[in-house]
Design goal:
Elements (H helix, E strand, L loop, with lengths): L1 H19 L2 H29 L4 E2 L4 E3 L5 E3 H4 L3 E7 L7 H17 L7 E7 L7 H10 L7 E4 L3 H10 L10 E5 L4 E7 L3 H15 L3
Parallel strand pairs: 4-5, 5-6
Antiparallel strand pairs: 1-8, 2-3, 4-7, 7-8
Helix pairs in contact: 2-7, 4-7
């Protein structure tokens, strides 16, 4: 047994010595060393995206945006999107609501290179009062009159149905944000009034985009 092990070790040493003398061996070695961490990272991101919990589903909808255009499932399906919730009349929680929208503006800025792959949508939580025109005035305060950040309102009953999908109470201004994937599945909730939540949200956006 001992002689057999020594013979096996000797053969392995001869093989390694022979390979070490060939440039192709070192080329393959270098490629493996540098690509293996990348492949592991891609696989890890893919697994994290697949295992991310599904917290709900957003129904099909069509609402009016700040430019009196339409926004609905036809535009959002197949894209990652971030939802937030506000009202033009927000007392006594205006400071919290404004902080959440300021952080949404930061999300827009930091995802600007993703182009058409992402949308930001801010829903009114007061559809009885907030018209598309009023949402347009609010969007202008955050330089979101054009582009991929949409402020939406619509028929009160329809808006309330969507708010229920997000477990958001009608008329209660809050800082909740949600991450939705291209299949209209809710994949995460975040407190947008919290600065740290922005980094967490952006990390999750990148993980959902990783498999694609």
């Amino acid at each position: 047994m001992l002689v057999s092990r020594r013979a096996t070790i000797a053969r392995c040493q001869v093989l390694v010595a022979a390979l070490a003398g060939k440039p192709i061996f070192w080329l393959l070695f270098i490629v493996t060393v540098f690509t293996w961490p990348i492949l592991r990272s891609i696989r890890a991101e893919h697994d994290l995206a697949r295992s991310r919990p599904v917290l709900g589903r957003v129904r099909d909808f069509t609402l009016r945006d700040q430019n009196d255009g339409e926004l609905g499932v036809a535009e959002l399906r197949g894209r990652i999107w971030v939802a937030s919730f506000t009202a033009t009349e927000c007392e006594p929680t205006c400071a919290q609501a404004q902080r959440a929208l300021t952080h949404m503006a930061e999300v827009r800025h930091r995802t600007r290179n993703l182009g058409d792959a992402i949308r930001l949508v801010t829903f009114t939580i007061d559809p009885d009062r907030d018209t598309a025109e009023q949402m347009g005035e609010l969007s202008a305060s955050y330089r979101a009159s054009r582009g991929n950040w949409r402020f939406v309102s619509g028929p009160p009953a329809r808006v309330r149905d969507i708010l229920r999908d997000f477990q958001v109470a009608d008329g209660m201004t809050q800082s909740r944000g949600a991450l939705i994937d291209g299949d209209m599945l809710i994949r995460g909730y975040y407190d947008l009034a919290d600065e740290a939540a922005v980094d967490l949200l952006l990390r999750d956006v990148s993980r959902l985009l990783a498999p694609g």
